[in-house]
Amino acid sequence: MKKGFTLAEIVVVVGIFGLIVVAISSFQRNVFVYNKYSQDSLSSAQDARNILRVIIKELRSASPGNDGSFAIITAATNTIAFYSDTDGDALKEKIRYYISTTTLKKGSIKPTGNPLTYNSANEIFSYLAYDVKNATSSPLFEYFDSSYAGTTTPLTQPVTVTNIHLVKVNLMIDADPNRSPIIRTYTSQVNLRNLKDNL
Q1: Model confidence pLDDT, tens digit, residues 124-149
Q2: How far is CA 188 from CA 71, 91, 101, 191, in A?
Q3: CA distance 189 to 199
Q4: Which phi and psi angles does 51 have, rounded to 5°?
Q5: Is-contact 130 103, C-beta < 8 A?
Q6: Torsion region of 3: left, alpha or beta (phi above 0 gives left; psi -120 to 50 gives alpha)
Q7: Domain boundaries along the sequence of the chain
């Protein structure tokens, strides 16, 4: 009697082995994809929190510019410009946060000269976040007056800057632009302490 495997048995074994390899590969790929997604989400959330922390800190200390200008210069839906001493040198920088296409940028101008002035040619730019979706979905900045009670409607555009007492920041970021949109929204708000009139 001859011992060995028939062709049918070999085909069955190879087929089962192939199915096992495909299942393991698919499982490993899914683990890798979900792990990457989780890492990207955590990284995106941490980056967004850090960005909001800086914006809120600078807005909280907004005060008149060294040239005597009012503390808030521009208050639009996706742009805000104001004066704040961001580096503790007693000079108020002219700060601008704005969305350019899908990128959140910051511009900063240090006053120079005597008397002190803000030369737009000296503006230094930095890139804070990419794949920002506010420009097409909802405002990055919302503004409220001194009667804000938590559910008040934001001031309508164009906003009179002297009426602003609270700014809400709603940063919307696509966690992974290579996949179908997974937009995450990070929100914070700040009272402009140097502009309070209800103390």
Answers
A1: 999 998 888 886 568 999 999 988 88
A2: 20, 26, 22, 11
A3: 19
A4: -65, -50
A5: yes
A6: beta
A7: 30-195
